[in-house]
Each structure stands twice: as C-alpha cells, then as structure tokens.
Amino acid sequence: MSETRKNPPRPIVGVGAVIFKDNNILLIQRSKAPKKGEWSLPGGAQHLGETVREAVTREVMEETGLTITITSFLDALDFIEKTQDQTAPVFHYTLLDYSADYLSGKLKAGSDASDARFFTFEEVMALPLWAETKRVIKQAASERGLC
Description:
- By secondary structure, this protein is α+β, with helices and mostly antiparallel strands.
- It has helices at 52-64, 121-126, 131-143, and strands at 12-21, 24-30, 39-40, 43-45, 67-82, 89-104, 113-119.
- The chain has a single domain (12-137), classed as Nucleoside Triphosphate Pyrophosphohydrolase, CATH 3.90.79.10.
- The protein is built from three helices and seven strands; from the N terminus they run ββββαβββαα.
- The chain is globular and about 45 Å long.
C-alpha cells in the first residue's frame, strides 16, 4: 500500500464486521496501532478496485481465517485520533460496519490480530471497547433479538 496510515493526507476507508456464530460475537485483539492491544471488530482498510463488501470478506479471512456472509449494513462512522495538542489527525478512518454470519473455517488470529475469540453479548458489553464499537454491536444484536 502506497498511502501511509499514520498522518494521512485524507481519510482511509475502513470496513468492519459484527460476526455472529451461535449467538456469540467475534472480536479480535489488535496487534497494530491505532488501539494496539484492544479488542475490536475484525476489519481493515479497503483496497483500490475492491468493493466494501469484498473488503469485509477479505479482511475477516485475513484476520480470523473465517468465511462469512454479510447480512446487513449497520453504520458509517469516523475514527479520528489527533496529536496531543489536538491540531492534526494522526489517524483518520471512515469506517463502514456490517453485520455478518459465520459460514466456515477454523478460528485463528492472523495478520493484524494477536488474538481472536467468540464472546457472549454480555461478555462483549463488559469489555473496555471503544464506545462506537459497543454501539454498533448493540445495534447488530438488537436486529437479531439478542438484547
């Protein structure tokens, strides 16, 4: 990728998925900045020439080893991390989040993930996640009648 992710000249399109398997929700533990070490939705940056749905499917496979089927679009939001003096963005992602179902594969952390696990809805809500991640997960769980 020729475009830098840190101090970008423009926002980067990112994709993510709330993935369900037997009413459990998949999270990955990030191995890179931003939010290194934190639990998050699997996903990543869209490649040139790739649709957002193709990007979701590819990123989930790269980070978890799983094949999914996308069930719905959830929301578009921005993640902006600024310098300490708040004058410039260090990271800026425009994120497109989807709901999806597990289809196949053996779960394993890969590429940008140091860990990958399925959690119950209650366990997810107890984790110290970014507020927007929790909101999108609640939305997806609500659509399924889980909360």
